């Protein structure tokens, strides 16, 4: 089987990269994150990076192990989900101006739920795509996906709660920046867990 990326793979990688730029632009605005480079350069570099990542995953899949093709797509999808999560979280803070403990927890619940829904679509129809006759029904896969994601969210959210609520801002960072530190920490811890559970339990691809 040829594991090298198709034109569809490249098209979806570029589209995913463009969405990442869109959602992260909200984070930059709300948290006043310094870019160090012109915004237009980031807008080009991120989709280009997604394309290169998918190509490199295909390269390793052909020469090392096939799983690298899936892992590269999962990485792009994961970055997109992370951007959706942070983008919605920061949008809610930006729109409401509410940074109370209750609001920050509630906002993260909403943003994480939106990221999970986005994740299912990208992972089912791209990362772990396979012929329809070889997969289960969308309902059964969605139920298993929710179960696996619930465990991932528990890990993700637990780290977020510890960092943001129990520890609180360190190093003079504002709460607007610190919530992103907590979100990043949770996302990184759950990344490998999600890849393995989706691959082995949900999609079996």
Give a short overview.
This protein is 80% helix and 0% strand. The chain has 6 helices and no strands.
Order of helices and strands: HHHHHH
| Number of β-strand runs | 0
Main sheet overview: none
Individual helix count: 6
Structural Rg: 18 Å
**What structural class do the secondary elements suggest?**
mainly alpha
Considering DSSP H and I runs of 4 or more, what fraction of the residues is helical?
A: over 70%
Low-confidence stretches: none
Measured by DSSP, the beta-strand proportion falls in under 5%
Give the distance, in angstroms, between the N- and C-terminal Cα atoms. Answer: 14 Å
- Overall pLDDT score: 90
Shape: globular
Topology, element by element:
Blueprint: H1 7-31, H2 39-63, H3 67-96, H4 101-127, H5 138-167, H6 175-202
Helix pairs in contact: 1-2, 1-3, 2-3, 3-4, 3-6, 4-5, 5-6
Describe the structure.
- By secondary structure, the chain is mainly α.
- Helix content is 80%, strand content 0%.
- It contains 6 helices and no strands.
- Helix 1 (7-31) runs parallel beside helix 3 (67-96).
- The protein is globular.
- The two termini are 14 Å apart.
- The model has no long low-confidence stretch (mean pLDDT 90).
Features:
205 residues; 6 helices; mainly alpha
């Amino acid at each position: 089987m040829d594991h090298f990326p198709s034109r569809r793979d490249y098209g979806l990688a570029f589209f995913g990269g463009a969405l990442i730029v869109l959602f992260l632009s909200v984070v930059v605005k709300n948290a006043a994150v310094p870019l160090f480079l012109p915004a237009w350069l980031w807008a080009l570099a991120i989709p280009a990076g997604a394309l290169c990542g998918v190509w490199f995953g295909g390269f390793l899949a052909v020469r090392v192990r096939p799983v690298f093709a899936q892992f590269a797509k999962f990485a792009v999808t994961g970055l997109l989900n992370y951007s959706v999560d942070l983008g919605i979280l920061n949008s809610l803070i930006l729109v409401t101006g509410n940074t109370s403990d209750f609001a920050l927890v509630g906002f993260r619940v909403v943003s994480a739920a939106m990221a999970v829904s986005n994740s299912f679509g990208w992972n089912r129809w791209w990362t772990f795509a396979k012929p329809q006759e070889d997969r289960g029904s969308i309902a059964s896969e969605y139920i298993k996906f929710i179960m696996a994601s619930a465990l991932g969210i528990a890990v993700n959210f637990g780290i977020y709660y510890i960092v943001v609520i129990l520890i609180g801002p360190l190093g003079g960072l504002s709460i607007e920046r610190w919530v992103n530190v907590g979100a990043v920490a949770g996302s990184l811890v759950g990344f490998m867990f999600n890849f393995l559970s989706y691959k082995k339990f949900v999609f079996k691809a």
